[in-house]
Amino acid sequence: MEALYQSMAALCARREYCCADITEKLRKKGITPEEAEVLIDRLIDEGYINEGRYARAFVHDKTLYNGWGRIKTAQQLRAKGICNAYINEAMTCITEEQYAEVFHKVLQAKRRSIKGDTDYEVRQKLARSLIARGFEPSYVFNHLDLENFEE
Fold it and tell me: Taken in order 147, 63, 91, 123, is the CA torsion positive or negative?
């Protein structure tokens, strides 16, 4: 059990993990849920796992590097069992300017690959794509203007 703890601590020291990630890794190693809980509690007590820190890193990476919107990022964090308080706090780490920059970068990249007969068709395809990336529909439609779609 101590060797497994050392292994998980070393893993957590290299990058951020949440409780759900470590629980899954321990489950795959055949550890009982009770033993996993004891190990995870120890990792939390010793600072190897911190879900607030994990949420901040996740939001930062998924927004700035993967080009995800707030909706998709929050959904993925909820799927990992991160509480809303941590999610809301982490979302404030990305400024509106950074978010707008990511949005426009994703928009321009997608615009190069989308074909359509009319500006309206291109705009709708772009909107669907951006919404699927997790950007809020109201944000998407407020920031799409037809001047960007003229050939």
Answer: positive
